[in-house]
Amino acid sequence: MGDILFLGHRVPYPPDRGDKIRGFHILKYLSARKRVHLIAFADDPRDLAGKAPTEMTGHASVIWRAKSRLRASIEALLTRKPISLTAFDSSAVRGAVAALLAREAIDTIYVFSSQMAQYLPARPRQQVIMDFVDMDSAKFAAYASEGRGPMAWVMRREANLLFQYERAIAGRADASLFVSEAEAELFRERSGAERVQVVENGIDTEMFAPDAPFEQIDAIDALIVFTGQMDYRPNIEAVSWFAETIFPQIRVRFPQAQFAIVGRAPSEAVKALARQPGVIVTGEVTDVRGWLAAAAVVVAPLKLARGIQNKVLEAMAMARPVVASRAAAEGIDHADTLRVGETAGEITDAVIALLDDPAAAAHLGRAGRARVQARYSWNARLAPLDAILGIGVEAPPHRTAA
């Protein structure tokens, strides 16, 4: 049997943000079964020095993505392609893929995120697994519906061109994967694609555990926590909505309440929220678990969310009570293990109810952890890959130097 080539839009280690977490665990899972080679982009200088999982036995090639947003936008207009593709168009990656396919016996190409499908051979002799994760074109369509003027036009253009591309790639792939049944069904309905399957996200329940060793933070009364990559538009919109509309109402009932926005690369809009009473913007932290453990309530008030939210699973695994928007809870088997609100009033009431009743909040947290342990371990969630790829556990060959 041949090897696997894993193409990633972002190097999947260290697993310190949502897309990298899924990629890391898939890479680790596949490497326990076959020899896996990695070609991926890096957009953080620290990722260039990152170490591949010890289980990985193939070659790793990490290539810096230096193209500016402006250049990608101009190229997209000139070539009538989506910006999502031109932003990741690289002759260096194209050369690396061609060289590896010529040198190694590859029988499966695992494409992680649609941006990387442009590096597939014109007529692949290999099995192609397209892990879309989420339906990105639907995200841009939602942005377009909310926008105005030139930006709305840009988002509509992106949504339409990317959807055409997604549908074409799904037609070429042996399997198209999505992170939740809701995303998979949406793609089936809109594209008419076949061979669409679900491989859900999981969680490391030994690492994210209330009794695991991690650095604690000082206790803060009535602490409400949001975690995430804070230059990501849906996260920016979520914390802005919460801090400006919901949190002031909570402070009427709990004047001492604090809202901590925990995550790296906060945008200027996020930093500005720290000027509001009770709002903390931490920036990057070494370990998010300390903030989760200290939280009286964890919130995920995303108005736009695709697939399964790692931030919600992490909080549940830490046995914290969670209040999430309907969009953030979609795709998670959460019956009676978190609170869901649609409007600002519903989310406000849910948070206040949990702050008012610590015993109920603790019970909800314990139920959430039990659900995650039973349902969302990574091995359990990734097990469908064995049948999809037609592989089983076997000892991969010796490691090749990167």
From TrEMBL:
Cited Pfam families: Glyco_trans_1_4, Glyco_transf_4
Classification via CDD domains: GT4_PimA-like (cd03801)
Record-annotated membrane-spanning stretches: none
Residue span, Glycosyltransferase subfamily 4-like N-terminal domain: 96-206
Gene3D superfamilies with a match to the protein in the record: Glycogen Phosphorylase B (3.40.50.2000)
Keyword Cytoplasm: no
Superkingdom in the source lineage: Bacteria
Keywords per UniProt: Transferase
Keyword flag Manganese: no
GO molecular function: glycosyltransferase activity
InterPro entries: Glyco_trans_4-like_N, Sugar_tfrase_PEP-CTERM_Stp1
Stored PANTHER family: GLYCOSYL TRANSFERASE GROUP 1, GLYCOSYLTRANSFERASE
Matches recorded under NCBIfam families: stp1
UniProt name for this protein: TIGR03087 family PEP-CTERM/XrtA system glycosyltransferase
Organism annotation: Sphingomonas glacialis
Upper classification of the organism: Bacteria, Pseudomonadati, Pseudomonadota, Alphaproteobacteria, Sphingomonadales
